[in-house]
Structures are given as structure tokens and as C-alpha cells.
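thought: fold this chain, then report.
action: predict
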Amino acid sequence: MNDYYEILGVARDASQEEIKKAYRKKARLLHPDYAGPDSEEAFKELSVAYETLSDPEKRQMYDIGGPEALRGGAGAGSPFGAGGFGDIFDAMFGGGFSTGFSGGGAGQASRVKRGKDQRVAVDITLEEATFGAKKDVKYTTYATCETCGGDMCQPGTQPVTCSTCSGSGFITRVQSTLFGRMQTQSPCAACQGFGTTIPNPCSECAGKGRVRTSRTITVDIPAGADEGTQIRATGQAEVGEGGGPNGDLYLLIREKKHPIFDRRGDDLHTWITIPMTTAALGTEFELDTLDGKKTLTIKAGTQPHDDIVLDDLGVGRLQRQGRGDLHVHIDVEIPKKLDAKSRELLEELAALRQEVRFEPHRQDKGFFDRLRDTFGG
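observation:
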């Protein structure tokens, strides 16, 4: 992975303000909305770099041990883990313990936060699921405040060092105990641990650095998307407080029911009813499909509930080549009433086929039926 300072284009001793300005400048250029989907990875890498270097504690860890230092695990050179010997006393006594082994104070908290992820439902038709589509998705989210540019301060003002904690972000209290002199640290109540206060917060965003807004983006719905499919749009959700990186937007697919076709996985199913004469004689006709009219052949002697399969006329397969099939289920219509002429013709046909004295076919009895007959059941 590239150096976080190089990604942002700042020197290693850059101030927080320089880091913030560099991020905003590059974020505008790399955001997928402007640079296209090919910039998603670069934008994500930029966001990770900014999220790390804008937090003083994470930045200190990164400067010492690089990205690996941020991934958890015991601290190098300390037999007691990342927090050192002092963490053991933290767990025992509920406060910090100042010794020669400790790695230092808690450090300032960062006002910059990553935006939360969001989920938005997207309704699609069967046609859009079959062939894929571009959809405009409108949703409400947070965007950077244009008045303060995410700085949280009224234009022309800036944060000031907290007079209570002198900018450290925490208050230290020393107590004499049986174990010696112990010190505890807690976030400064005057500045909430930030080390600075904002005496003149931006009136537009109430000092949050972001405002609620409506937004519309165009997304690609892939062929084969189904009910419940989730599509991730990196960096398209809300901007974080203090101009922090955007969260990710998750699009939850909801598929509308089609009036003719029933979807089952990648296959489509439809039902047609034909007269009994057509089933007996066979025919061809034009069937409406999602791909337009297709010739459907009804073979002579087609039976009720027969299934005619039309290859590759189903739904596109998600992240795979090809499409499913279209299944045409046949229902044969038997007339309930016959006029005199129709009855006469059917009787002639029955006589010709020697079906006048037709008896129903009897199915072979099963084992238990035969057993019951044998023993008089």
C-alpha cells in the first residue's frame, strides 16, 4: 500500500488543517460521481488515508509502525500488549497509571468522523432484471456544508485552544494510594476531549460541518439482479461530521411482480390455454416474450400440463454468462357445453377411434392394496 502522506500529497509534518484541505481537494477530483466508477478504489484509499491522519492518535500509531500498527495486536517491544504496563492498571483500577513504561497520554479526540453507511430500496421490473438497466436513485443524506466547507466554524473564525485542558483534550488527576501515586485521565468536559472549542459554530449546519440534502445518482443494475440483491456504491452515502469521509450506499433490490411471467431463479414460467382440437392436431403461433414475439410450436398430441421449453429466453444470470429458459405450461380446454353439430362430430370421431365403449384405464394396484385384497381387508 502507498504511503498515506503521499496519497494525500502532504508532508509528514503537515498540520491538521493542511491534511483536511488536501483531502477535500483530492476528494472532489476522485469522487465516483465526477471521476466515474473507475476511481472508486483510489477514492476509498484516499478516505482511509484521511481517516487515519486526521485522528492524532491513529496518526501517531501510523508514524511509528505504519498500517500494520493500526490492525490490532500486541504492541512491539511490550510484553503487556499494545497499551503497555499501564493498561493492566487501567483494567484493575478503572483509570490511567503513570509509570516509566507508559506510552504517553490519551491524546486529542478528532472532530472528523466517517459518515454512516446507508441502505436504499430500489424497485425494478422483470425486464430490468432480465437485461440489466441504469436507474436514477433519489435519497436523502448528508452533504458537506457549503457555508463552512465542513470546518464547523462560522466563516472567518476558527477553533481556539481549550483553556481548561490547555489543548491536551483530557484532565489529569493524581491520587496517593497504597500502590503509590496514581494518576487518572478523563476527557475534558469543557471541550469533550477535542482540545479545542468552537466559540462561533457555523449557523448553517449548527457546527456539524454537514447539512441534510436530497441527492440523485445513476446506478447500474446488473442482469440477473433478484429480490433481496444488494449493490454497494462506495462513498455514495452521507459525508461524516467535520468533513469526514463518506459512508457507503447499499441498494436493496425489490422486484415488481410481472402480470404474465413468473420468475423462478433464472427461469421464467408462463401458462397458456389451448382448445382440445389444437392439442390433438398441433399448430404454430406467435408467443409474446420479453424478447418480442417468438414462434411456439404445439405438437400434435400435446397433453395437459405439458411443458414447452424455449432456451435462453429467461433472465440473465447474475455475474455469469448466458440466460435461463422460458417454460410454457400447457392447459387444454375441454368444452363444458356442446351444440348438436359439435356433439355429432365428436360422436363420429369417437366411433371412428372405437372409443364409444371407452372404459377408464385402471392403474395397477400397489403392494399394500394387493395384500389387503389377499387377506380380505
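thought: worth noting. DSSP finds ten helices and 15 strands in the chain.
final: C-alpha cells above.
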